[in-house]
Amino acid sequence: MASQQTLSEVLSRLDKAVGSLEDAVERQLEVRENYRDAEEEVQRMNSDRSKLAGELDASEARAERLEEVNKEVSRRLVTAMETIRAVLDR
Predict the structure, then answer these.
(1) pLDDT 10s per residue in the chain (90 long)?
(2) Interatomic CA distance for residues 8 and 10, integer angstroms
(3) Which InterPro entries does the record cross-reference, listed alphabetically (predicted)?
(4) Which of 25, 59, 80, 85 has a CA-to-CA distance to 69 between 20 and 30 Å?
(5) For the chain, how far is it from start to end, CA to CA, in angstroms?
(6) Cα separation of 30 and 33, whole Å?
(7) Model-level pTM?
């Protein structure tokens, strides 16, 4: 009877150990899946960041061109106003 009890106890401990191992494997798989999801999100964010950086560069270049055009228009307006004043002063 003692050997039956011992065998039963051993099988019970083995069952618990296998259950613990299965739980650990399941948790590890979940961690890996979460890591993979996070890695994919980081890749998407890096892609978005690159796209936004390109758009920002293009916008800055356009703003610089507009500023140059604005200065040229302002210069021409000043010249036109000075010409009009000169004509009116005659």
Answers:
(1) 567 779 889 999 999 999 999 999 999 999 999 999 999 999 999 999 999 999 999 999 999 999 999 999 999 999 999 999 999 998
(2) 5
(3) DUF4164
(4) 85
(5) 131
(6) 5
(7) 0.55
49-75 CB burial, b ≥16 within 10 A, e <16: eeeeeeeeeeeeeeeeeeeeeeeeeee
**61's tokens:** 């270049």
CA 32 to the chain's CA centroid: 20
Q: Which amino acid is at 71?
A: K
Burial 6-44 (b: 16+ CB within 10 A, else e): eeeeeeeeeeeeeeeeeeeeeeeeeeeeeeeeeeeeeee
Which tokens belong to 63? 């703003």
CB neighbour class for 87 (10 Å; exposed up to 12, middle 13-18, buried from 19): exposed
